């Protein structure tokens, strides 16, 4: 099972942490002619090989790399401005499915969970933290892209990337509170954020902004809570 966690971690690092937005934009413009597409694909293969850290898995890394490239190319040529959100999730689901398929055929999925050692928990934590800090922010951004365009028409002074880092901190805090069993602290965090946001929402008198912030906050906290519960479940089975 630890191999599956590492394959997922390689995917998260390659698709989110090591893929700048400028690469995504150029890939969408030039598609198969974009050099960043092939660098992105190569990074995926190298990440799989490095995380598994065994040369005998070179063929697995190569096949996952090629599969990832084919899936990305299909998305690039079939998506348009109206279907970007749908294709983003279709792309990610297909990547995850391909990882599961390769893991199933390459490793023995019938291995009992007792083969996990306590040291393997670190991979669960690393994957969860990367998901909450980098991946979740992009997921929420994609989900709320249409509403964000509407709000961006109104000029408003704000710190650069402030919302991004606030979201990362709140998800890490929620995740940490769940791991230590302090559920009441999550309620305190929600209340504290509500107090700071109340003045802005009251002054703006903008129903769209209020709804946007509320949906974003609930998504952020919901994903963090779900991830924390999943990690606890995985740790219990080790």
Overall description:
With 238 residues, the protein is mainly α. It folds into 2 domains: 110 residues, no CATH class; 89 residues, no CATH class. It is 79% helix and 0% strand. Helix 2 packs across helix 3, helix 6 runs antiparallel to helix 8 and helix 6 packs antiparallel against helix 10. The longest helix has 30 residues. It comes from Fontibacter flavus. This is DUF3307 domain-containing protein.
Quick recap:
The chain has 238 residues and is mainly alpha-helical. Helix content is 79%, strand content 0%.
Key words describing this protein structure:
single chain; mainly alpha; 0% strand; 238 residues
Helix-strand layout with pairing:
Blueprint: H1 2-17, H2 21-30, H3 35-52, H4 58-78, H5 84-106, H6 121-143, H7 145-152, H8 162-179, H9 183-204, H10 207-236
Helix pairs in contact: 1-3, 1-5, 1-6, 2-3, 3-4, 4-5, 6-8, 6-10, 8-9, 8-10
**Rg measurement, Å:** 20 Å
Order of helices and strands: HHHHHHHHHH
Largest sheet: none
Strand portion: under 5%
Ends apart, CA distance between termini: 10 Å
């Amino acid at each position: 099972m630890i191999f599956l966690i590492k394959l997922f971690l390689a995917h998260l690092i390659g698709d989110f942490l090591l893929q700048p937005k400028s690469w995504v934009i150029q890939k969408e413009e030039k598609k198969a002619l974009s050099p960043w597409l092939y660098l992105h694909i190569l990074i995926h293969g190298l990440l799989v090989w490095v995380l598994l850290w065994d040369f005998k898995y070179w063929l697995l890394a190569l096949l996952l790399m090629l599969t990832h490239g084919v899936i990305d190319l299909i998305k690039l040529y079939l998506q348009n401005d109206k279907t970007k959100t749908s294709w983003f999730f279709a792309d990610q689901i297909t990547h995850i499915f391909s990882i599961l398929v390769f893991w199933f055929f390459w490793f023995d999925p019938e291995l009992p969970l007792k083969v996990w050692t306590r040291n393997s928990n670190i991979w669960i934590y690393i994957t969860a933290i990367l998901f909450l800090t980098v991946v979740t922010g992009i997921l929420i951004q994609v989900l709320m892209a249409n509403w964000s365009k509407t709000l961006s028409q109104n000029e408003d002074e704000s710190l650069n990337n402030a919302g991004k880092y606030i979201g990362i901190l709140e998800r890490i805090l929620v995740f940490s509170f769940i791991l230590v069993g302090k559920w009441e602290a999550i309620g305190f965090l929600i209340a504290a954020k509500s107090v700071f946001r109340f003045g802005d929402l009251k002054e703006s008198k903008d129903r769209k902004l209020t709804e946007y912030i509320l949906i974003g906050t609930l998504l952020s906290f919901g994903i963090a809570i779900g991830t924390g519960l999943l990690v606890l479940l995985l740790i219990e089975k080790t």
